[in-house]
Write a structure and sequence with these properties.
Length: about 140
Amino acid sequence: MMELKPEIIAKGVVAASAGNHSKRISFAANLLKVPATIVMTQKAPISKINATRNYGVEVILHGDFFDDANKKALEIAKAEYKFFVHAFNDIDVISGQGTIGIEIFEELQDLDYVLVPIGGRGGFYPELPRILKQLIKSAN
């Protein structure tokens, strides 16, 4: 969100999530004082829904699957002129998620292995191994 122009920020952001992306976006929106609407699936775990709401963002429950929530979020973004923050198909999101590699390296420099999860639709996989490989010369 820090890459967005002030006039875009003023209108707010919208995102779709089955859970984890919603927490990241709502945390950043709260921190940066950006209005945010998060569309989550009706099947999202209540703990993730509550964690998202606790950051003061608007939460809309829609559909049973991520694609349903994503379609609704895109409709809201278009109708309300809000910026759509894609959960995994956005270079800024992927780059931001990859910074966890820097945190891992700073905390645990003497690593033999890092197991990177690739399940779900998250954006960790594309960037995290690349950053770790740059920081840890012995990484494969």
